[in-house]
Write a structure and sequence with these properties.
InterPro entries: TAT_signal
Shape: globular
Number of domains: 1
Helix content: 55-70%
Number of helices: 8
Number of strands: 0
Order of helices and strands: HHHHHHHH
Protein name: Twin-arginine translocation pathway signal protein
Largest sheet: none
């Protein structure tokens, strides 16, 4: 008895491995091309230890959407700035290998050739609406590709750790702060 089309998986294990290998090669090529062409400078932005100018444009667009509901609307600009500073401090203390991986994630998210197809945001991050960014985050969170889900998780954890490490974030979640020693 021959299986019907509905009984066979849409993507075999071998097909998934081929796709994953191709996607990895594509991302590595784009990352290498960006670093060789100078699109992703490795030097930090002025006054920062780890974050680069391209990273800042992306993060300034994404952080307010990620902090939505955790910060009062009138406090979003200040929360965005302190979160960026806290994130920069955290990234500056990463091992060189982890910092390189984080920068590769940011490169994929900021480089035009990968940003559009992978995020659905075809223009500059500065011009993306909050709904565009929510769709991007939802797309990555619920992706069938493990690499995109891991990217979402990494981004979410970095931003949330940067925000909730700040004393001004504690009142919203009811945390009284660390005990006095």
């Amino acid at each position: 008895m021959n299986p019907s089309l509905t009984d066979t998986p849409a993507l075999s294990r071998r097909g998934l491995l081929k796709f994953s290998l191709g996607a990895s090669a594509f991302l590595a090529t784009v990352g290498l091309g960006a670093s060789l062409s100078g699109c992703s400078p490795s030097h930090p932005a002025s006054g920062l230890a780890a974050l680069r100018d391209n990273d800042l444009a992306f993060l300034r667009a994404v952080i307010p959407v990620m902090l939505d509901g955790a910060v009062a609307v009138e406090q979003i600009p200040a929360a965005n700035d302190v979160t960026l500073r806290s994130l920069d401090t955290g990234l500056a203390h990463l091992s060189p290998a982890m910092l390189k991986l984080t920068r590769q994630l940011f490169d994929v998210l900021t480089l035009g050739i990968t940003r559009g197809p992978l995020t659905g945001v075809w223009g500059a991050w500065e011009n993306a609406s909050a709904d565009d960014i929510r769709r991007f985050l939802d797309r990555w969170e619920n992706s069938s590709l493990d690499l995109l889900r891991q990217g979402h998780s990494s981004l979410l954890q970095m931003v949330m750790m940067a925000w909730y490490s700040r004393a001004e974030a504690w009142a919203h979640c009811g945390y009284p702060g660390p005990p006095t020693v």
